């Protein structure tokens, strides 16, 4: 009982650390200061990520088997996203993304407390399945960063076209310190390309080795359909980018459609099955 209480309070402590990072980022940006990853906010983010990772291991493996569900998937997605963002901060000034991502990570780290996930069958908790889940979550993380990245780019574009209006609001200082749109767009498509490679590996392994991974032959259900649609949308986006130079609003529309399909493919489906229908792993 005491151990369970400790882990519960530890989740809230990590959530509080993420919120402190978000607060310090907003304050620093309003003072026209940068948010370097080696600064106080950056080091606190790193500490929160490390503690978040330790708690997630307990959430997934703490019962001796493998428990996984939409809450664990979201928690892992934002954990990896924050870790990748901290690394990217050494190369590009991304304080604005810190401020956007960390409140979501604070919520995500708390989700496994009320939603424990479902225990996977013995044949489904193999090393192969764990690798498959890790690759899938990493792909989700990259696409999550890319989606938030795109939202930030839209705000910057609006700021550049209406600087006086945006400066009067709370977002003006944040937007004025971000890198150029060209630099952010280049980083965005690198994230998309890496995420697409991982998504391809996840889909291919799930299709080819379905029986070894899940203990049953491949079923063409809603999850498979949404995943294939998402893969097709991202493939079309990358093809359009490198063949026809797609950018701006056209690229953003494709990105958001693909991201929505990806969310529906797993996290949305798992939420419906676990919370709404109260069913196990399907």
Describe this structure in words.
The protein is mostly helical. The chain has one domain. It is built from 11 helices and 2 strands; from the N terminus they run ααβααβααααααα. The protein has a two-stranded antiparallel sheet with strand order 1-2. Helix 5 (127-161) packs across helix 11 (248-276). The longest helix has 35 residues, at 127-161. The protein is flat.
Radius of gyration: 20 Å
Overall structural domain count: 1
Count the E strands. 2
- Mean pLDDT across every amino acid position: 81
Distinct helical segment count: 11
**Beta strand %:** under 5%
Shape: flat
Order of helices and strands: HHEHHEHHHHHHH
Helix residue percentage: over 70%
Give a quick precis of the structure.
This protein has helices at residues 2-30, 40-61, 70-88, 95-110, 127-161, 163-167, 172-176, 181-208, 210-214, 222-244, 248-276, and strands spanning 67-68, 118-119.
Write the layout of secondary structure elements.
Layout: H1 2-30, H2 40-61, E1 67-68, H3 70-88, H4 95-110, E2 118-119, H5 127-161, H6 163-167, H7 172-176, H8 181-208, H9 210-214, H10 222-244, H11 248-276
Helix pairs in contact: 1-2, 1-4, 2-3, 3-4, 3-5, 3-11, 4-5, 5-8, 5-11, 8-10, 10-11
């Amino acid at each position: 009982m005491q151990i369970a209480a400790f882990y519960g309070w530890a989740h809230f402590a990590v959530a509080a650390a993420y919120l402190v990072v978000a607060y310090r980022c907003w304050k620093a940006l309003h003072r026209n200061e940068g948010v370097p990853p080696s600064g106080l906010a950056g080091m606190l983010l790193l500490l929160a990520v490390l503690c978040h990772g330790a708690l997630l291991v307990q959430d997934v493996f703490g019962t001796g088997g493998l428990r996984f569900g939409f809450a664990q998937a979201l928690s892992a997605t934002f954990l990896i996203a924050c870790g990748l963002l901290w690394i990217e901060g050494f190369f590009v000034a991304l304080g604005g993304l810190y401020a956007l991502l960390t409140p979501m990570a604070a919520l995500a780290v708390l989700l496994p407390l009320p939603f424990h996930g479902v225990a996977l069958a013995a044949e489904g908790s193999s090393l192969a399945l764990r690798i498959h889940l890790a690759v899938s979550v990493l792909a989700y993380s990259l696409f999550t960063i890319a989606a938030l990245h795109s939202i930030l780019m839209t705000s910057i574009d609006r700021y550049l076209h209406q600087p006086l209006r945006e400066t009067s609001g709370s977002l003006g200082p944040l937007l004025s310190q971000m890198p150029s749109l060209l630099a952010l767009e280049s980083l965005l498509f690198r994230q998309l390309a890496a995420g697409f490679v991982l998504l391809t590996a996840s889909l291919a392994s799930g299709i080819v080795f379905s029986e070894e991974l899940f203990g049953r032959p491949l079923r063409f259900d809603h999850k498979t359909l949404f995943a294939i649609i998402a893969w097709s949308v991202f493939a079309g986006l990358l093809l359009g980018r490198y063949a026809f130079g797609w950018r701006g609003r056209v690229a953003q529309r494709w990105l958001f459609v693909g991201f929505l399909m990806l969310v529906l493919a797993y996290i949305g489906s798992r939420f419906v099955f676990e919370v709404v229908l109260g069913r196990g792993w399907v």
